[in-house]
Write a structure and sequence with these properties.
Layout: E1 2-4, H1 18-22, E2 54-55, H2 56-64, H3 66-73, H4 83-97, H5 108-125, H6 136-156, E3 166-174, E4 180-190, E5 196-202, H7 213-229, E6 235-240, E7 245-249, H8 253-276, H9 308-314
Helix pairs in contact: 2-3, 4-5, 4-6, 5-6, 7-8
Bound molecules: iron/sulfur cluster (SF4).
């Protein structure tokens, strides 16, 4: 895996002007009908495969703490949006919709013009996000940082030269071991020779080399998904918009095959927990950020009884 920073890449744009940032508190027209509203998946409900499947983030979550995985996947506990997750959703939506604009017009300014209408569409779809900002100042700071991250994207790539083969692609695949996998891939590029590149946008901090394991897990997971449904991607990349860093991993068939066995073993472990009805809590460095801590016995919480329907559904992840 290689890491590069925006300093290595052409800088074709400058930072947002104060005038742009101040426009955030002014009323704006609603999102045009052709825009994909933030948080709404392309093709959702249009005959896609929504049967239970394992995602990269949930698989990693199980490795960290089986109880946290259970509470999210089996009990279906939802966590309320935060300023950080809301920013992530909004920026992903901007970077998805910018590719609807004709190639020559995909400028930093065009992306910035998408921010406000998409934010308004998001407020309509998820009204609770408005309550995240008790003061105008807090909203303005948040929006200024959001706009900065949109600008940072243009330091990493120039979308005028790209024509994605897929955006927010919902990919479902079954491994030879019968485990159904799912991923929403931010962008898939296809070269004229058919080679694939997977691109994922990140709005959090880039991990230090010691903590790049999670990033690598996600890239391998996407590589496996595409190998099973199309072809092994030649390259996978995580674009960290805050710092301008890019993590690049070029998968090899033998490595992805080993990863596939790792996923099969992981699923065996999940299935065994489900059949025993016990998903143990496991303390880990992310416990302080755990959204289901109130139901964790290691922190004085009470875990609810295991919902049987949830277990039945979970066990459908492996095809019989
Ligand atoms: S607080 Fe920690 S141990 Fe408890 S459920 Fe959350 S991640 Fe697991």
């Amino acid at each position: 895996m290689t890491v590069s920073s925006s300093a290595d890449l052409p800088r074709s744009v400058t930072a947002a002007s104060p005038a742009t940032a101040s426009a955030d508190v002014a009323p704006n027209p609603a999102a045009p009908a052709h825009m994909q509203a933030p948080g709404v998946r392309n093709g959702a409900g249009k005959g896609e495969d929504w049967r239970p499947a394992l995602s990269a983030s949930r698989a990693k979550e199980y490795q960290r703490c089986p109880l946290q995985y259970r509470l999210h996947v089996v009990d279906r506990m939802k966590e309320p949006p935060t300023q950080a997750t809301t920013r992530g959703t909004l920026i992903h939506s901007v970077l998805e919709n910018i590719y609807d604009v004709p190639a020559a017009q995909r400028t930093r300014e065009a992306a910035q013009e998408l921010v406000m209408p998409l934010w308004e569409a998001m407020q309509e779809n998820t009204p609770e996000v408005s309550a995240l900002f008790p003061t105008v100042e807090e909203f303005s700071d948040w929006m200024a940082q959001t706009r900065d991250m949109v600008d940072h994207y243009f330091r990493i790539e120039d979308p005028r030269w790209l024509e994605p083969a897929g955006r927010e692609s919902h990919v479902v695949a079954q491994t030879p071991e019968g485990v159904r996998l799912r991923g929403f891939i931010d962008r898939i590029d296809r070269a004229p020779n058919g080679a694939l590149r997977v691109v994922d946008y990140k709005t959090g901090r880039a991990p230090s080399p010691r903590f790049q394991e999670d990033a690598l897990f996600q890239m391998r997971f996407y590589a496996l998904l595409l190998e099973l449904t199309d072809r092994l991607p030649a390259r996978t990349q995580l674009l960290y918009l805050k710092s301008g860093q890019v993590l690049t991993f070029d998968p090899e068939a033998s490595d992805i095959e080993r990863f596939r066995y790792e996923i099969a073993r992981l699923w065996d472990a999940i299935e065994a927990d489900a059949r025993r009805g016990v998903f143990p809590a496991r303390k880990n460095p992310l416990c302080n950020w755990c959204g289901v801590r109130a139901a964790c016995p290691l922190y004085g919480g009470t875990t609810p009884p295991l919902p049987e329907e949830g277990i039945e559904k979970l066990l459908q992840t492996r095809a019989s």
